[in-house]
Amino acid sequence: MPSHYASITGTASITSFGTCSPTQPIYYATFTGASTLVDSGTLLLPGTGNIITANGDTLLASCISNNTWQVLSYFNGS
User: Is the separation of the CB atoms in 38 and 62 below 8 Å?
Assistant: First the structure.
């Protein structure tokens, strides 16, 4: 199964991973800093709230509609 990999740097709040298509594969991403993933209409997170990332954290995400991403799994790197 094809997949994409991304390394996310910086400390900004993230409300979306951008425009996508449901036919795109699952993305694997790693974080190098303390960003905040914001649970929103375009970024659906597991659990009940926002996620503050740390160096080494990873996630799997999938595009579920044209501009909506769902984080399937989130893993703490520590």
Answer: no
Nearest Cα to Cα of residue 34 among 19, 18, 53 = 53
- Strand 51-52 versus strand 36-37 pairing type: antiparallel
pLDDT band at 3 (very low <50, low <70, confident <90, very high): low
48 strand-pairing partners: none
Per-residue three-class SS string for the chain: CCEEEEEECCCCEECCCCCCCCCCCEEEEEECCCCEECCCCCEECCCCCCEECCCCCEEEEEEEECCEEEEEEEECCC
**Which conformational region is residue 10 in: left (phi greater than 0), alpha (psi within -120 to 50 degrees), or beta?**
left
What is the model's pTM?
Answer: 0.88
